[in-house]
Amino acid sequence: MTHATHPGPDRPPGSEGPADAKLGFSTPSGRRRVARARFGPESRRDPHLPQLIRNALLDDRGQGQRCVQVRLSAADATEPAARALLDTEAGTALRLHRLVEGTENAPLFPRLIGYELDTAEPFLLYDPPRGATAAKTHVIAATDQRDLTRDLMLALCLLEGQGLVPRGISPATVLWDGTSLQLWGLEAVTGIGSPRSPWGRPPYASPEQRRGEGDADPRDAVWSAAQVLYRLVTGRPGHPDRPPADLAEHRVLNETLREAFAPRASARPTPAQLLDLLPQGTARRTTLPPPPPDETRQDREVFEQALRAKRQAPTAPAASAAGAGLGESEVLCPYCLETIQLDLGALYVTDSRMQYQPLNLAGISKLRRQDVMRGAVQKCVADPDFPEHFIPVPYLTYGRPLTVAMVGQSSTGKSHLLTQMIAEITDGGLEPFGLTWQSVNPEQHARFVRERVQPLRNGHVLDHTGGVGLDGFARFVESLLITDASGQVRPVAFFDLGGEDLVRTDSALRFLLGVDALVFVVDPVLALPLPQLDHARERGNIEVNRDGDLAFATVLDRLPKTGPYLEVAATMVLGKADLLRFQSPVDRWLGRGPLTALDPVQLREESQDVHAFLRRHAGQAWLRPFDAIRRCTLHVASATGGQEDQGRYPAGAAPRRVLEPLLSLLAMHGLIDVPGGPEAFARGEAAAWETVPAQGPGDEEFGVPGARGAGGPGRERERGGEEK
């Protein structure tokens, strides 16, 4: 088998690879395919990048299918940066496949056959490349020059329409077969407006791209394309920082691309402007496809109507909130829900055998007393009929605690999500928001880090949640002291119960009567009948449940309700989002970096996107928490960044956007100052005309939960009757 015509001829020693192997991979449609594959010799695609490439022959369909495999070695795959490159390439290839497959523009890009990324040696499979690289072409004919320029600018226009900038355009990634172009280098794609990081080599990377200055611009790629075309016309590279000195000697280049060599992106034309400059004879395949219709409009309108209904609804009296009406020195016990206050005569500490022993403060100096008290617990005897339980002393000395409960069926990833939330906090994730933290109980926190955080970060799958003891009541698994920007300290305790405990253990649900905040974790494998999740369902022996999460329903039914909505603060998290990292709109949010400020507008956009996605694919039953709770935001998150392979995460667990749901809850409880205050943050600002609730003709059209006729507040309309 001959080596593929493709970038990167350098072959590392010992890189022959197995001659025959069985491959399981996902196709662009999301379906699973298994094939026996035979491989040719292996080479490095680019000497500066980790990806390897080799020809392959798939023989699962009665006749051999030739393809090219791009992969990472097991050693390179342990590097997050290398995996990120392959993820970027896969995501871009899939997006382009959905955009151009079956159209006249399909030949412009590599055609993806399949991919497998959550494995020790991740890979992509493509149709064989077409043509030879520009690096192997000395000069190009004038007629070919016009056609190649047309194809290259059209490819850039299509990428720009997807919000993408190809940073990897060079003679090694531009292929030409004499009639049409094919653009590779998809691993180097970045988003328009994202901060530039140093990438590429002169002269093909633009000056500002090489320096990593400013934000990525589609005109970065215009510079690269112009340099490749100059190389193809003259047979030599251009100047790395300014137009070539002899540009005027090449009429077509000078007329079309003169401004493309401007040192700054702002002075260069866009790909579409260059496409318009091409002569009339190059009009073939220059029609850009129209934007696809917005299929989510109706789903988005439902979200907006639901928020309007929540803004109209009367709020429950403050006295109905959990813990309201307590004295300054009183705290609601998170277990028995009776009031408790600090009693210096009922304190205990653990001995070397982890048994509780009474603590006698007599004889302990004032200097040591605070440190000793921080590790002590108090026995709660407020309810003599309740099983024996102990409360950390700091929990009783900083005012009313905030209790957060993770909700979802078993195997939804709640424990992994909570563990990574705590890990992000300990890594300083709250500092940009003016918050600091301290453990409530140092011994308890050290145990949590030792038994949960460290194993997960090292790539181990965590054991099943055990939040209910033999005595049948719920215990919090971790607690922290959070100090806000004003210096106010508040204990925050996290409950994490197994899904079966929430469903079958009535005593375990008692703590819900006093809970302050809920995190509902949606398992996409259970909720979404998308084909790309079928393999995960087969592995876990899981079926799609169109009726929603039973744990959600159980918790919502148990919470106290004094008005049209539940008043507890909540977030819904589409967990395991790495399974959907190439699916819109999940890719839009999962690819963003960590937050450094809470923007209510951005949060509302994410909530609307997730709501529309779940409503469209999972059904309204999965949105019951949002429908039932007045203050509820929606998020995407991945606790691990990928799926386990043989009981481990091959590259370790790489969390993505795990802290955002908790930040939202803290903002709703006033620990983080946000524009408009906690209420507007959760429900959005009311429009000026939203003053008089009135029955409108469109309520039933969208089936808005909570609309009049459905047992809740109605939509608001202008007096003229027509909604604006």
Throw out a few tags for this protein:
six-stranded antiparallel beta sheet; seven-stranded mixed beta sheet; 20 helices; single chain; disordered C terminus; alpha+beta; 724 residues; disordered N terminus
Head-to-tail CA distance between termini: 65 Å
**Count of alpha/pi helices:** 20
Radius of gyration: 30 Å
Give start-end ranges of low-pLDDT stretches. 1-17, 692-724
Categorize the overall geometry: elongated
Judged by helices, strands and strand pairing, the structural class is alpha+beta
| DSSP, total strands | 24
Query: The biggest beta sheet, please?
Result: 7 strands, mixed
Strand proportion, as a percent range, falls in: 15-25%
Can you walk through the features of this model?
By secondary structure, the protein is α+β, with helices and mostly antiparallel strands. The chain contains 20 helices and 24 strands. A hairpin with a 6-residue loop joins strand 12 (331-332) and strand 13 (339-340).
Helix/strand layout:
Elements lengths: L19 E7 L5 E13 L7 E7 L6 E7 L8 H21 L11 E5 L6 E4 L5 E2 L8 H20 L2 E3 L7 E3 L4 E3 L5 E3 L15 H5 L6 H17 L16 H7 L13 H7 L19 H16 L18 E2 L6 E2 L6 E4 L5 E3 L7 H9 L2 E3 L10 E3 L9 E6 L6 H13 L9 E4 L2 H16 L18 E8 L5 E8 L2 H6 L12 E6 L1 H4 L6 H7 L9 H9 L10 E6 L11 H5 L9 H18 L6 H5 L3 E5 L23 H9 L8 H7 L15 H4 L22
Parallel strand pairs: 18-21, 18-22, 22-23, 23-24
Antiparallel strand pairs: 1-2, 2-3, 3-4, 4-6, 5-6, 7-9, 8-11, 9-10, 12-13, 14-15, 14-16, 16-17, 19-20, 20-21
